[in-house]
Amino acid sequence: MGEPRSHSEFQPQAESRSTPTGTPPWGETRVVGKALPRIDAYERVSGSATYTLDVTLPGMLHAAIVRCPHGHALVKRVDFSKPLAMPGVVAVLGAGDQEAALDWYNEADKGAQSRLFDPHCRFAGEEVAAVAAENAYLAADAARQVEVEYEERDVVVDMDEALKDGAPRVHEGAPNLVREPSKYERGDVEKGFAEADLVVEETYRTSVEIHAPMETHGSVARWEGSHLTVWDSTQAPFDVQQALARVLKIPLSSVRVIAHYMGGGFGSKLQLSKHTVIAALLAKKTGRPVKVVLPREHSFLCVGNRPANTMTVKAGAKKDGTLTAIEMRSRGVVGAYASWADATYLATDLYRCPNVRTEDGAVYINAGPERAFRAPGFPQCAWALEQTIDTLAAKLKIDPVALRLKNMPTASQLRKDMPYTSNGLPRCLEEGARAFGWEAARKRPKGDGPIVRGVGVAAGQWGWEGQPVATVIAKLFADGSLSLTFGAADIGTGTKTVMAMVASEELGIGLDRIRVEHADTGTSPYGVASGGSQTVHVNTPAAREAALALKRQVVTMAAAQLGVPEDDLTLAGGEVASTKDPAKRVPISELKQLRQQQVIIGVGTRHPHPAGKIALPFAAQFAEVEVNRATGECRVVRLLAAHDSGRIMNCLTFQNQVFGGMTMGIGFGMTEERVMDPQTGRVLTANLHDYKLPTAVDVPADMTLVAIDPKDTECNTTGTKGVGEPATIPTAAAIANAIYDAVGVRLTTAPITPARLAERLAHPVTVG
Amino acid sequence: MGEPRSHSEFQPQAESRSTPTGTPPWGETRVVGKALPRIDAYERVSGSATYTLDVTLPGMLHAAIVRCPHGHALVKRVDFSKPLAMPGVVAVLGAGDQEAALDWYNEADKGAQSRLFDPHCRFAGEEVAAVAAENAYLAADAARQVEVEYEERDVVVDMDEALKDGAPRVHEGAPNLVREPSKYERGDVEKGFAEADLVVEETYRTSVEIHAPMETHGSVARWEGSHLTVWDSTQAPFDVQQALARVLKIPLSSVRVIAHYMGGGFGSKLQLSKHTVIAALLAKKTGRPVKVVLPREHSFLCVGNRPANTMTVKAGAKKDGTLTAIEMRSRGVVGAYASWADATYLATDLYRCPNVRTEDGAVYINAGPERAFRAPGFPQCAWALEQTIDTLAAKLKIDPVALRLKNMPTASQLRKDMPYTSNGLPRCLEEGARAFGWEAARKRPKGDGPIVRGVGVAAGQWGWEGQPVATVIAKLFADGSLSLTFGAADIGTGTKTVMAMVASEELGIGLDRIRVEHADTGTSPYGVASGGSQTVHVNTPAAREAALALKRQVVTMAAAQLGVPEDDLTLAGGEVASTKDPAKRVPISELKQLRQQQVIIGVGTRHPHPAGKIALPFAAQFAEVEVNRATGECRVVRLLAAHDSGRIMNCLTFQNQVFGGMTMGIGFGMTEERVMDPQTGRVLTANLHDYKLPTAVDVPADMTLVAIDPKDTECNTTGTKGVGEPATIPTAAAIANAIYDAVGVRLTTAPITPARLAERLAHPVTVG
User: Fold this and answer.
1) Which of B245, B287, B481 sits opposite A251 (nearest CB)?
2) Closest by Cβ to A522, choosing from B517, B525, B597
3) Pairing verdict, β A634-644 and A702-707
4) How far is Cα B96 from Cα A15, in angstroms, rounded to an integer?
5) Residue B645's closest CA among B704, B597, B705, B702?
6) Rounded to an integer, what is the distance from CA A341 to the centroid of its chain?
7) I need a surface site. Which of A311, A324, B235, B379 has the fewest CB within 10 A?
């Protein structure tokens, strides 16, 4: 699903890796790296872009889903007689249908099994039944008329409660501790702590964060005979296709999933959701297309979240700042079905440290299941680890930037010291600090009124280099215009634009003459899920190779037409010209053989980078805050992000990603928190009013991006490493460190709400 | 556009041709050649197939077109005030818009130029204006409210009249004879006639035939920013894309044409029509999708027809039947804008004859333009030539089958004696005659009551081997199911099914696990127009190569997984197995590397056949008729078609084509005739009541197909040559010859209506 799942996956892979294709990285570029607007900007801002929400088919029905209102209950009886009596209600689906018993389990990690409509509801929001009606309002009304008789059971929504003896069991016969915690160890941790001049230890907590993309989850399903087409708001059309084929027990070739415009997912749309299957089943039952779009409140309940983690970090260092040992233990809540809440990656690999021990456990509670959320586990880990480093720095009286630089690794210790193709983290720290004016800001008086200022820094890396599978098909038309076809979804990040820019770079064809068709399992070659920060670095090398395949054909045609050796020809500005005789030139649109063939195609795939190296992105972020000591209000005054993501493909889309990631980091660290009622198990914040996403007033006007290009020639043939997740990893920790700098108090629980901060300022305790 | 245009195109091409790919033709087959139902049969019969007529988009408007009611007129004024006052009318398009002056000319042959809305209307039905409204009924009503002031001009709708001095000019300043007639000559025709023992000469006439596909022409246009998507009922999505880009002056990459289900075209849908441009312009103007579907009566006026030809054939033969000379002169009416009405091909190449001279001319009249119609020119030519051969046979007292066999060519004389890859015509004649019981039927008494019986034969070939450009992309999914993507439209002939069968043959994957996506210029590789009988023989070799490309990858994966040399492995039934150790086997769905890559693709292209040869299909058809000498009614009692189309891919689709082609031949020879009013230039038969398409009562229950497979190993790697047009070429002539056999009277004008036949039976004349 595009994100790390266990430490074992980080071991060097046995499979041999060939060297990358002979294509060298670009030197100077004409298109790539520039600040160019999206190729689909007009469609996106004019409203003509067809998101799943906009898909409307003739005869289409609308479905609504009946969800269990109780945190834990057994369904005893479902009565559809009232909705079926309503004019315009066409079909119902529930316990009476044999499809209700379809197997269901978390795609990503094969978590606890359940059924499509499981008679044992383990969280408030679990699917119980569905209705299809002539319009969405009627469907919603009809769903409310379904009478369900429940037998309520005891609820547990708190991790500590869930782990107590005698706590309600989320799954009968199974402990709430999902499985034996996963463990990692290297070196001799006890010896490391013994060697340390300073050891600190603290427990940090984060809250459940909801993905809350602009576009809620939705699907439209249509059958043509035995063939199913699904328009889905997904990051991973091919994964949804695969899951649908598995659940419905039909061939992959019979399932077509289309994801053309997509309004964000952040990991929550990497896998099949039950509503999609429900739409497909209702469409089959009625012989009509069926659309289901989750209401915002449902999207808070059942399509994922970032687990809340409780993390204890113990770290030891020499007086000079050299780390001697790190120990980290994490427990995360995964809701009722998921099974993965790891949050210790950075503790094992961000800093050079010979002695490390980690333990990750996951805990069932009566809540909606966890799903991958932008850098799963990493912001939580940064929250704990980077505050720990900050504490060490403070106690050792070493500048936090200097302390980090002191412990920079040259290789991935988690992968048996496999070297990085490049590691720009030292430069991120140094150049970021310089651009931020770090030293001056540190020395500035904090202020002596109620409002004080502080600055903080945190570092991060993203620990997964993606699945090396991508194919791009490029079609060159006789007039020299171009079409690109690939499988990856553009989840709002500018994938289409960047792919077109790569082709434009190689072929000299203007972006206005390039069309992208993509993310359609029926007509696109395979594309990996758009998640895990892999989209650009997996797909752009394939786009480049496809363009080069066309370039070779064009040059061959031109050589024959001009009577010039191929080696003497260059392609630029849509024209092939001799380097030796300026009179010998021909525009692509006047190539006779191309006109005869009408269209030629070039196919490109991504080649793996050299064996024995790992390509990962790095980041350091700097924050300045203003804290009102009287009220606990904290304002993030400015943020600076210094990123090594490899080559930047488009300044604008890159900046979008980084600023968006930092905004999300503000939410994670300062505002966002799912609150549940421990009595009923209901989510009390299932709306955009009570759940505090950061808004314009929470985000500083002063956000700066410092791009560190390591000129990585080994990671792939476009020099790219990825930016989606690193952008959000260190932000909250940098803000927390800035608050500590401002007020001398460390807030260990995220989000740092005014209430929490005010309470701590009223009752300060010394940490460590 | 997929059909012959001038003799010069039949000359051997200078370009070098490589030998076909190493893939040998199949020996025995498991799937190919079988009688299998369409893979989209359910969709087609259940109504779930989305034809252009069924495409419905949110916010879509409907357009109606105002057409000139006069055969010849100048538009003086167009007043939209009434329609614009109607609620629900959204936009109008006409002389006031600058797009009205867009250049327009016949795509196929660069005929006379005009404008999108030409103020000089040259036929009744020409486009004058258009309106877009909220529904189709309102649009039609509003179109009727557009007030147009015309200045009428003199009309000419008869070819002979049009060629007279002082006839009204269809194009001012240009003669009605479109251009200098095209001429062909070989040998010494005068010498040939001098050497003949018998010379016959007669003039034959055919009528204008309307394509009348089940689905009338229609398009839906939608803009997204600068990108246009058009769903079009077309045989040639890539040609429509190209023409739209040219007319609208935008890049090919900005035009996407989709043609998924298509209800017949017969050549009338090989090119862009004005209504498609009108839909695109109204969509641009309104910012909403626009659909336009031609009413049946409009489809009779403006989207093409088979020209009426007047053909004089003179032929000489020795007593033993050896042809010594053929001379043929044709004139055809092309309506107001087209320019091609050739009808002499068969006279030059069907029979061995050293001395041949032909002349083809085209004549403008005030009527809708000609368009390619199933075997353009060939049924007309067969009508004239094959009756001439029959006359020779009668006069020489040689059996008509024997006379034809006497003159079989071994090479294409039109192409400087280029050999055929195969010529099954002698077998078609011999085996067809045997299956028909020809000799016995000839000897049977005609009958002595008013109702008499007769039998006839005619031969044909199709003279064009297609454009050798096709690419197919095959995707193999991890569960061993398959997707095929290609550009060609399936115009109702079973292309999708046949392509899937080819892949199934090679990969052993069941048809229920193969999905086809096609005919979409946005997502498909290029495909030639589905016309010219080229679809199967151009595309199936590419499908086979794509499947073989997958097969190689699958075998390589299996060899690695099983630890067996690739050469020892075979793929059958979705499983790779060792030929040496039965225990070593793995289903495609369990290939680990495939699961890792999720999808692999294979790309196939068609390779040209060996240089210096030509691959063409041949046919002989036999008819038996019952003529009522009192009433002139003629019933076709039975038909037998013997076809060499190369390998037959699917018995059912092949039979569909042949029986459909013969039915069309019945229409051409017996029932169909466009009738125009010479005073007004209006079409009097612009509906399915007055225009007599053959119906169930006209078609014999006894239709037989004799398939002659020449086992052609040179034409391509699937051994296919094409069937669409040959199926309809000889039918009418065979029927006319059967009528002659029955009543001893030769009907030279098609269609042979009861009135014409009764008149000739009342006033018999001796022919020749």
Assistant:
1) B481
2) B517
3) parallel
4) 69
5) B705
6) 15
7) A324
